[in-house]
Amino acid sequence: MDYITVNNLSFVYDAEPVLENVAFRISAGEFVTLTGENGAAKSTLVKATLGIIKPKTGEVTIAKQNIKGKKLRISYLPQQIASFNAGFPSTVKEFVTSGRFPRNGWFKRITQHDLAHVEKSLRAVGMWEQSDQRMGALSGGQKQRVAIARMFASDPDLFILDEPTTGMDDVSRSEFYRLMSHAAHKHGKAVLMITHDAEDVKAFSDRNIHLARKQNTHWRCFSVHDNTAEQDSETLKNQEVRGA
Model-level pTM? Predict the structure, then answer.
């Protein structure tokens, strides 16, 4: 089941083409990476897909329901989400617990089930022992892991991640990729992750969509085409697509 379908998406910034004729899909149960050279408008593509910014042309369809027939839940983790200053008042546990409120409604009590989910999420990213610390007192890598734990605690169906492993060491990055693979392959989640570590994540992901410069045009013009239906599974494992 496709959670995201994008067709012929184009985006213009100050009259300059940034994305042209982009097409791709993300389905339940798969872990997809999005790569491209610096300046390839990867974050712009994600924001246009989510409706944060308005594309010039194109059609974006986001499923209303998940594979169980319930309302689709989306979690978006932008870049530098973990830039909390030293005065940020919440503890790690309080911050992650806040991820449960939209699921239950803002005025409903947090239950023991919620707290168990929060603990599980923090343990998954190796931050349970720091649950009583203030967010502002953590290192950059620790803040990033806590932000990811909050995302896990909200239990979304679709994860949209923009460079989520920034500030993590090699071991933490590998563990995070394993967790996202488990979420997709064992729990039917859909994952779209922008990354510069395509080789490191290759063993965990299902396929890679690569934003590449469209030939014979200005360097800011990029195209991506997801022709997965016409390719075998081996090709999907490493998909690099260029515009015509």
Answer: 0.83
